[in-house]
């Protein structure tokens, strides 16, 4: 199976006529390369199949690489500076399959593996590719059932002021109560969910559920409680995120400043213009925007000036290394200073020891989050701890005013 890399771009940039020229040229090339007993067919928009008879297993990859090298010498008519590349998946009979449909399916799985690795790549079919495909299919079925049956739930991890230990709010973290695999952490399902069409729907549910819970705890006495909610990239591409947030806030009587939406670098870089517009509208409403995992990727610092960010979240990798690694400590000092200069809050994630808390408090880091203050727990357990200051602040760790109540 041979597939043209980036064919959609050829059509979009050069037009459909140029795309048709490319397909004709590749078809003619494959026919010219075919020897006796070889059949060539176009089986999809930009996908071709070759049935090559009498080719030994060890010669399959070299044969395919030569095909791809020849294709790379082609160029769209009138655009000789634009190179064409393709990828190839190979299945062998009778080793992999004897039935035609199964053999084609195996080659197609190998093709997808080749394209996932790199452009102009060649991959051989292996049974693991089918197993992975079945796992992905089962995951998709499972995810649809989870949405329909309401199997997702939110856990809440406290966020505190490092100056006095007061509880500021919580981050809502999604979990999956799987009917046969028990409670699943995000690592077990989030990649599949993020890549599915369900991500927007689940993301909206998280906002709705987080707002409802924050409103409940505010009514119970946590007057200034703030809820942090993570966003999916798809929420910027489909629907109207600011309108959905505004409706959720109104439905639960929650002021905009009580909600903090967390974005990651991938969201910022994958849909730049849509993200800026949506986030600007949310900030105008009064909703807080936090940049999560800050400092761990490749985003430019200029994003902090172009995006309406109100909070920087220090990644746990810096926090857990700062006491013994001067470079990480320097990064934290720089981010704290930058936050003050840009009038942004800074919250440190992954605080697990009193030494880490004290170090950050001494350097005037405003807020913290981590196992030192509490692990993520279900709403009922979090609610039972509201009003119990010692739960969120280790005994003796922070001096408080005698009459101050931690909500």
The oligomeric state is single chain
| Cα separation of the termini | 62 Å
Q: In angstroms, what is the radius of gyration?
A: 27 Å
Low-confidence sequence ranges: 397-407
Mean of all residue-level pLDDT scores: 86
Largest sheet: 8 strands, mixed, barrel
Share in helix: 40-55%
Please count the beta strands (DSSP E, at least 2 residues each).
15
Shape: elongated
Side by side, the strands of the main sheet go 6-7-9-10-11-12-13-14
Number of helix segments?
16
What share of the residues does DSSP label as strand, in percent?
15-25%
Derived from helix and strand composition plus strand pairing, the structural class reads: alpha/beta
Could you characterize the architecture of this molecule?
With 407 residues, this protein is an alpha/beta fold. The protein has 16 helices and 15 strands. The chain has helices spanning 7-14, 16-33, 57-71, 100-117, 127-149, 186-194, 199-219, 241-252, 265-270, 272-285, 303-306, 316-319, 326-341, 354-362, 379-385, 389-392; strands at 2-4, 39-42, 47-51, 86-90, 122-124, 152-161, 167-178, 182-184, 226-230, 259-263, 288-294, 311-314, 345-348, 367-369, 377-378. The strands form 2 sheets. It has an 8-stranded mixed β-barrel with strand order 6-7-9-10-11-12-13-14. The protein has a 5-stranded mixed beta sheet with strand order 2-3-1-4-5.
């Amino acid at each position: 199976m041979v597939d043209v890399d980036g064919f959609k771009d050829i059509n979009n940039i050069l037009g459909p006529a140029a795309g048709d020229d490319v397909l004709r040229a590749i078809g003619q090339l494959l026919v010219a390369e075919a020897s006796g007993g070889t059949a060539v067919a176009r089986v999809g928009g930009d996908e071709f199949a070759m049935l090559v008879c009498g080719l030994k297993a060890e010669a399959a990859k070299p044969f395919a690489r030569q095909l791809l090298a020849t294709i790379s010498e082609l160029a769209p008519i009138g655009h000789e500076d634009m190179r064409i590349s393709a990828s190839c998946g190979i299945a062998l009979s009778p080793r992999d399959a004897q039935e035609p449909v199964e053999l084609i399916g195996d080659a197609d799985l190998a093709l997808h593996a080749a394209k996932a690795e790199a452009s102009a790549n060649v991959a051989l079919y292996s049974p693991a590719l089918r197993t992975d495909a079945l796992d992905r299919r089962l995951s998709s079925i499972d995810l649809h059932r989870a949405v329909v049956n309401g199997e997702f739930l939110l856990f809440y991890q406290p966020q505190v002021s490092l100056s006095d230990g007061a509880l500021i709010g919580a981050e809502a973290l999604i979990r999956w109560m799987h009917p046969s695999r028990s409670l699943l952490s995000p690592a077990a399902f989030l990649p599949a969910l993020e890549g599915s069409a369900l991500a927007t729907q689940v993301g909206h549910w998280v906002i709705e559920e987080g707002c409802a819970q924050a409103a409940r705890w505010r009514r119970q006495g946590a007057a200034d409680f703030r809820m942090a909610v993570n966003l999916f990239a798809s929420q910027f591409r489909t629907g109207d995120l600011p309108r959905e947030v505004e409706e959720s806030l109104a439905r639960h009587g929650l002021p905009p400043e009580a909600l903090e939406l967390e974005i990651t670098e991938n969201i910022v870089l994958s849909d730049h213009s849509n993200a800026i517009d949506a986030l600007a509208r949310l900030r105008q409403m009064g909703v807080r925007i936090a940049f999560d995992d800050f400092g761990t990727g490749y985003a430019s610092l200029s994003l902090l000036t172009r995006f309406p960010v109100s909070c920087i979240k220090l990644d746990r990798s810096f926090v857990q290394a700062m006491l013994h690694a001067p470079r990480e400590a320097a990064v934290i000092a720089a981010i704290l200073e930058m936050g003050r200069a840009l009038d942004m809050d800074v919250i440190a994630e992954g605080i697990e020891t009193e030494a880490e808390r004290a170090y950050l408090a001494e350097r005037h880091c405003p807020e913290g989050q981590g196992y030192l203050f509490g692990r993520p727990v279900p709403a009922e357990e979090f609610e039972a701890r509201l009003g119990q200051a010692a739960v969120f602040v280790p005994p003796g760790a922070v001096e408080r005013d005698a009459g101050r109540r931690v909500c």
